[in-house]
Specification:
By secondary structure, this protein is mainly α. The protein has one domain (about 1-50). Helices cover about 60% and strands about 0% of the residues. The chain contains 2 helices and no strands. The protein has helices spanning about 1-10, 15-40. The longest helix is centred in the middle third of the chain and has 25 residues, at about 15-40.
Length: about 55
């Protein structure tokens, strides 16, 4: 649906640029989430208690 809207309004050549913007936004949000986790002292390997075997 989104790709069709991009093609109909901006043309087929805009799709790689929009894709790159989406990837950069995802990278930025992932980096932000990692920084917030480090700031809050959350280990990147932490798992929810229900996922730990034997509990």
């Amino acid at each position: 649906m989104g790709g069709g809207l991009i093609v109909s309004h901006l043309g087929l050549m805009a799709t790689p640029w929009i894709g790159a913007i989406v990837v950069l936004a995802a990278l930025g949000l992932t980096s932000l989430a990692g920084r917030l986790d480090r700031r809050d002292g959350i280990s990147p390997l932490a798992r929810p208690q229900h996922a730990v075997a034997g509990h």
